[in-house]
Write a structure and sequence with these properties.
By secondary structure, the chain is an alpha+beta fold. Helix content is 32%, strand content 22%. It contains eight helices and 15 strands. Strands 3-2-1-4-5 form a five-stranded mixed beta sheet. A four-stranded mixed beta sheet has the order 6-7-8-15. A four-stranded antiparallel beta sheet has the order 9-10-13-14, with helices on both faces. α1 (3-19) packs across α4 (100-107), α5 (112-132) crosses α6 (142-155) and α7 packs antiparallel against α8 (242-256). The longest helix has 21 residues, at 112-132. The protein is elongated. The model is unreliable at 39-47 (pLDDT under 50).
């Protein structure tokens, strides 16, 4: 067991004692990866039927977790992603409670190695979008370009493509839109993003393209999104509540006249999971080591939308963007 892994296990056991939890049973998930000794916790543990059982004196990967739960255990923390059939197979009399009570607080602040891994993932996601700019978009469908993005992501070493977004024209105004048969034409705005896992850690990069030329008034609206992103970056400081960052973004967008069209979410925590703490609305306060995907957006119904997404780390000094690609509105020439 490495020193880093031993420190994590010790911290988990202290938290278990504080929560009155005797055993943790984790299925393949971000929590599993956090505590797995393989590759110092970065293993993509997606093997069917593999569990991690943590007790006061052991940490074991097994296919029979019930056999490792002591008969004396009264409270067992189970993985939030545990499937119903897995819970039934445990067949234990102890009280089952979410393991997130123990692990979520410990995963909030990333150590330097984790931030480096997040940075590599962020750069990989951005590189996928950089390559996407060189593809032929005119006349292709959203779905066809999404398939090409998936291949680029996998070729970059992406272990799991979590989500892909290719939205053209009026579909850019639909935040839940999935790539369809809409043909991409000159004069269309495009929202393109890739979210995936590289070397165990998740990152997303989202950018805005225009085909041949941007729609009328689009650049003015996009400039508001960029101003909101800059304001969010400036606000991401230690001791600042997440909700304050949300207010900062909303104030910028409200002042522009687009307040009714602002996206509900401006960011989310990222790490071993693509959507984890810190989160708005949970009294979260930023601290060094926390990492979030900043994603301010404006969606004008039936017209167009704009969104940028970047992974940013909170540090003791100032926020650090873990990516490098600019937010310039890129005009595609083919």
């Amino acid at each position: 067991m490495s020193r880093r892994h031993a420190a994590r296990v010790a911290a988990v056991r202290r938290a278990m004692a504080g929560e009155g939890i005797d055993v943790l049973v984790l299925r393949p998930s971000p929590d599993f990866r956090f505590l797995s000794a393989s590759r110092e916790g970065l293993a993509d543990a997606d093997g069917e039927g593999v569990f991690l059982v943590v007790t006061a004196d052991s940490v074991v990967e097994t296919r029979d977790p019930a056999g490792l739960v002591p008969a004396s255990a009264r409270r067992v923390g189970v993985d939030p992603e545990m499937r119903a059939r897995e819970l039934f197979r445990l067949a234990i009399a102890a009280e089952l409670v979410p393991a997130s009570a123990v692990l979520a607080p410990l995963r909030l602040r990333k150590d330097p190695a984790e931030l480096s891994a997040l940075g590599r993932a962020g750069l990989a996601a951005e590189e996928v979008l950089a390559q996407a700019r060189e593809l032929a978009w005119f006349g292709a469908t959203e779905r066809a370009m999404a398939r090409r993005l998936r291949l680029l992501a996998l070729e970059s070493g992406c272990e799991e493509v979590i989500s892909l977004r290719v939205s053209a024209g009026e579909n850019t105004a639909r935040p839940e839109h999935r790539p369809g048969e809409r043909v991409i034409n000159p004069g269309d705005a495009l929202l393109v993003s890739v979210c995936g896992r590289w070397d165990g850690y998740c990152a997303e990069a989202g950018r805005v393209f225009a085909v041949a030329e941007p729609p009328e008034d689009y650049e003015a609206m996009y400039s508001v999104v960029l101003a909101a992103h800059r304001a969010a970056l400036a606000a991401l400081r230690p001791s600042v509540p997440f909700d304050e960052l949300v207010r900062t973004v909303n104030e910028v967008i409200d002042a522009s006249g687009y307040g009714h069209y602002a996206a509900l979410h401006v960011g989310r925590g990222v790490g071993l999971g693509h959507d984890e703490g810190p989160r708005a609305g949970q009294e979260a306060v930023f601290a060094p080591g926390m990492a979030v995907c900043l994603e301010p957006a404006i969606y004008v119904p039936d017209l167009f939308g704009a969104r940028v997404a970047d992974v940013v780390a909170c540090t003791a000094a100032e926020p650090v963007s873990l990516g490098t690609s600019p937010h310039t509105l890129h005009v595609l020439d083919r």
